[in-house]
Design goal:
- By secondary structure, this protein is α/β, with parallel strands linked by helices.
- The protein folds into two domains: about 150 residues, Rossmann fold; about 130 residues, no CATH class.
- Helices cover about 40% and strands about 20% of the residues.
- It contains ten helices and nine strands.
- The strands form two sheets. It has a five-stranded parallel beta sheet, sandwiched between helices. A four-stranded parallel beta sheet has the order 7-8-6-9.
- Helix 2 links the parallel strand 2 and strand 3.
- Helix 1 crosses helix 6, helix 4 packs across helix 5 and helix 8 crosses helix 9.
- The longest helix has 21 residues.
- The protein is elongated.
Length: about 300
């Protein structure tokens, strides 16, 4: 998306399922200079546009719980605003996977607003279905499933901060094929052909962040060439993604358990990309899951 002419009035509608980060995104927009109005009844919104204020952009939080909420009304309003001279109307949709939404509600002990107290999964599913047409219509869609608040802020600022220069942030992660592919990954590499430290009793309890495991994986005769070819591929693709305006690129390494080989490759690749000047964050899905489980048990 090309940044709109600063002489035009920018109006951003912000929506998404409960728990996906809508309030956080609105806070970022407010910090970026937008006038923010949240949870305004749909029938009152046309009043906001009767006397356009050319000096300040506007962000409107749309909540599916509103009693007069209608996806058709939102889409119709976007269309009518976009047809007006001097106005740029956009829809920002904060998306999130079902399992992450359920986890967030369990962490905060909140009841989902569209579900009975003991069945939050029903509310999440109902809301996702209700918002489906808006997700399809979105001008900007941000998947917050694996984003922390700082990463979400960076994503919103990339798209909407006035005069902000976008850059490409890269996430490198490891995962276990037993638990399925990560959500919204751009590129996946299978590491299961490499020597497996799991079968070495002295290494089994460690993971790929430990030096002895990384050294063991690196002794595989195919490791060096595999690692170099992956780096060459990333250094070819990432500049092209940045040129086309992409703000985030995710690379995932998978192995059987997500503890050893994939972690080693993810750590090594992230360091190589950082040395090449890319902004990189790293995430080890299975290791994080174990740490969270251990914390809950204690």
């Amino acid at each position: 998306m090309i940044a709109p002419d600063p002489t035009l009035r920018r109006i951003v509608f912000v929506t998404g399922p409960s728990g996906a980060g809508r309030s956080s995104a609105l806070n970022v927009l407010e910090d970026a200079g937008f006038e923010v109005i949240d949870n305004l009844p749909m029938r009152l919104m046309p009043v906001l546009f009767e006397e356009p204020d050319q000096n300040r952009p506007l962000a409107l939080g749309i909540d599916a719980r509103n009693r007069d909420f209608s996806t058709n009304l939102v889409i119709d309003l976007l269309g009518r605003l976009s047809s007006q001279p001097g106005v740029v109307a956009e829809l920002l949709f904060l998306d999130c996977s079902t399992d992450v939404l359920l986890h967030r509600f369990s962490e905060t002990r909140r009841r989902h607003p569209m579900a009975p107290a003991d069945r939050p999964a029903e509310g999440v599913q109902a809301e996702l279905e209700l918002l489906g047409p808006l997700r399809a219509r979105a001008d900007v869609l941000i998947d917050t499933s694996s984003l922390n608040v700082h990463e979400l802020r960076a994503e919103v600022e990339h798209w909407f901060a006035p005069g902000g220069k976008r850059h490409l942030s890269v996430t490198v992660q490891s995962f276990s094929y037993k638990r399925g592919l990560p959500r919204s990954v751009d590129m996946v590499y299978d590491c299961r052909f490499l020597k497996n430290p799991y079968w070495e009793p002295t290494l089994r309890s460690f993971n790929g962040t430990d030096a002895q495991v990384a050294q063991y994986v690196a002794t595989d005769p195919r490791y060096a060439e595999f690692s170099q070819k992956i780096l060459d591929m990333s250094l070819l693709i990432l500049p092209a993604c940045q040129e086309e305006g992409k703000s985030h690129f995710s690379i995932a390494f998978g192995c059987t358990g997500g503890q050893h080989r994939s972690v080693t490759l993810a750590e090594s690749h992230a360091l190589q990309l950082a040395d090449a000047g890319w902004q990189v964050s790293i995430r080890h899905r299975e290791i994080m899951a174990r740490q969270q489980k251990g914390a809950q048990q204690t």
